[in-house]
Write a structure and sequence with these properties.
A hairpin with a 2-residue loop joins strand 2 and strand 3. This protein has helices at about 20-25, 110-140, and strands at about 35-40, 45-50, 55-60, 70-75, 85, 90-95, 100-105, 160-165, 170. The protein has a domain at about 20-145: PH-domain like, CATH 2.30.29. The radius of gyration is 19 Å and the shape is elongated. The protein has about 190 residues and is α+β, with helices and mostly antiparallel strands.
Length: about 190
């Protein structure tokens, strides 16, 4: 949990700019200490902003299962460029920089307002990610397992681990996101 955030109760669904379907909100996977701040309706679902980033939630096609929700992409503030308004109808969010940048656009009722609120939330979100990174680095320095006592049998399984390029935490090579900070594995 981040030292700068506190656990919050679930958002009051009626106070968000657009009330969200509770089942859709339930589909959003939040990291420890992450909480929903705002929500905007899109033609297929919702754009949900937390204290750490934005996630698109939409209803699965009837081909799969009626009434189920899925999420993606999740755009985290530490890697999110300032939002842009396209054609007066879309808010565009860009993750990454240079050749690795990926831009997503979301059709929302008031893209100027959405872009402004996301831009206002970015500095605090980036600061929270930095605090998480510092806390993780500090915890990594403390985590040292003492050697087992003499005569103890130790069974070792070989598990391939890689370091998160953002926070340095060790994670399984098969993990898509870091379990500590939520960054995408590169």
């Amino acid at each position: 949990m981040s030292p700068t955030s506190t656990d919050s109760p679930p958002p009051d669904l009626e106070t968000l700019p657009d009330p969200i379907d509770p089942a859709a909100l339930g589909a959003v996977e939040l990291l420890p200490g992450e909480h929903v701040r705002r929500c905007w309706r899109t033609p297929t679902g919702y754009l949900v902003m937390s204290n750490l980033g934005c996630t698109h939630v939409w209803r699965k096609a009837e081909l799969f299962s009626k009434g189920e929700w899925q999420t993606g992409p999740s755009l985290l503030f530490y890697d999110l460029a300032p939002p842009a308004v396209l054609g007066g109808r879309f808010v565009a969010l860009t993750e990454g920089v240079g050749d690795d940048a990926q831009t997503y656009r979301f059709l929302v009722r008031d893209p100027e307002e959405v872009a402004r609120e996301i831009e206002d939330a970015r500095p605090a979100g980036k600061a929270e990610w930095e605090a998480r990174r510092a806390q993780t680095a500090q915890e990594m320095g403390r985590r040292q397992t003492p050697p087992p006592p003499p005569g103890t049998t130790v069974i070792v399984r070989e598990i391939v681990k890689v370091r998160c390029s953002y926070c340095g935490n060790l994670m399984d090579v098969a993990d898509e996101r870091c379990p500590s900070c939520g960054a995408r594995q590169t």
